[in-house]
Amino acid sequence: MLIGGALTGAPRTFGVVDPATGEEFDRAPDCDGTALDAAVRAANDAWPDWRDDAAARRARLAEAAAALRAAAGELAPILTAEQGKPLRDAENEVARAAARFQHLADLEIAPDVTPGSGGERVEVHWRPVGPVAAIAPWNFPLQLGAAKVAPALAAGCTVVLKPSPHTPLATLAMGRVLAGIFPPGVLNVVAGADPLGERLAAHPGIRKINFTGSVATGRHVAATAAPDLKRLTLELGGNDAAIVLDDADVDTVADGLFWSAFANCGQICMAVKRVYAPAALHDDLVDALAERAAKAVVGDGRDPATQIGPIANRPQYERVRGLVAEALAGGARAAAGGAPLDRPGFFFAPTVLAGAEAGMRIVDEEQFGPALPVVRYRDADEAIALANATPYGLCGSVWGTDTARAAAVASRLDCGTAWVNGHMRMSLDEPFGGTGHSGLGLSGGPWGVRAHCEPFVLHIPAP
């Protein structure tokens, strides 16, 4: 672990499982209360100097980006071993993490200026809130860890980063790579089994929590933060709908839809989780998606031929298996897949479900795995109503030949981001956040930096 600028172990360790084998392959330090107190104390001690030198912050962020790029050959294999994704995807994740540090190194947040009621100059400065607890998930531990750390550091906050206990090793390795780049205590990295995250969120030395995970855990984080009025950013996933319009060309949209649903084994918060198809195209679209599912190469992420790895951990594997079995028992049909693969590890056949309906849990809930329900609809109004009939509101997409019509339909989706003829395309310059149960707050660009700040308004008399 990285605490106060020093690399340290822990008296206890916990096991880390390779999802491609289902077996423990390494152990990680289990942070105890003494070490957690030391990490939070180090973050508090480092904060006054760190917040006061924006130029130094940008320089260190750029150094961090370069160090991560140079360490891709070390970090990516660790990530594949603990998370399961193909090695090339792990390499892309390291690159994306580095890009987040570089992006924030190049972004300067200037005060906002507005005229006052008496003609004076009014400056709105953005002051860092203080030490931040960054709690990252297991699907993209490095990319989403960097998405929390980089804007907090750019704002002038210090950070205690905690990865998921399912995927601690790559994040700990990232901490080793970045040790010495930031002043001691500015970035601390701890790992541990539950309830370390709860203890970190509740710690009185933490002023903001930036969490990505499930709705249930997000509610708990919010309740934990409430007594101390800690600031919150919660990204709690989504049940993203893709509406295929009746003028769509099935062959044109099928590839984009398939990989928007099955990339990273379907374990992406903004992935397509359900498809709505018009009656006239439903069967053809199901066949096209099923054909791609049958051809996709599922295997160990270390095999260069692999396109889809295993589900990342046993609890998620069991959830996906249960949701698919329940849908099949309720009348859905597996046009492809429908069951686990007969091999060690947490492999599940890429599954396309025809005849899925609202009311089935795999339609109504976020499955977060390699299983895609396709729901038939009568007209665009019904499709929009079905897509919006969810407590989630992260992302959505509309697919069709008439892009103006598709954009008009997309504008009626109740979500934070919508696309036309695509999904999951996102730059580092734009805001990202959801509505409803998909969370609170924004990340990305200047919005992500200001999410770690509070405004300070300064009135200056006119000369």
Automatic annotation (TrEMBL):
Q: Kindly indicate whether the keyword Oxidoreductase belongs to this entry.
A: yes
By its UniProt entry, which InterPro entries does this protein fall under?
A: Ald_DH/histidinol_DH (IPR016161), Ald_DH_C (IPR016163), Ald_DH_CS_CYS (IPR016160), Ald_DH_CS_GLU (IPR029510), Ald_DH_N (IPR016162), Aldehyde_DH_dom (IPR015590), Aldehyde_DH_Superfamily (IPR050740)
Residue span(s) of domain Aldehyde dehydrogenase: 12-454
* Top-level taxon of the source organism: Bacteria
Among the GO biological process terms of this entry, one is: gamma-aminobutyric acid catabolic process
- Please list the GO terms describing molecular function: succinate-semialdehyde dehydrogenase (NAD+) activity
Answer yes or no on keyword Oxidoreductase: yes
Q: Which Pfam families match?
A: Aldedh
Concerning its family, UniProt says: Belongs to the aldehyde dehydrogenase family.
Protein name as catalogued = Aldehyde dehydrogenase family protein
Organism source for this protein?
Answer: Actinomadura physcomitrii
The upper taxonomy is: Bacteria, Bacillati, Actinomycetota, Actinomycetes, Streptosporangiales
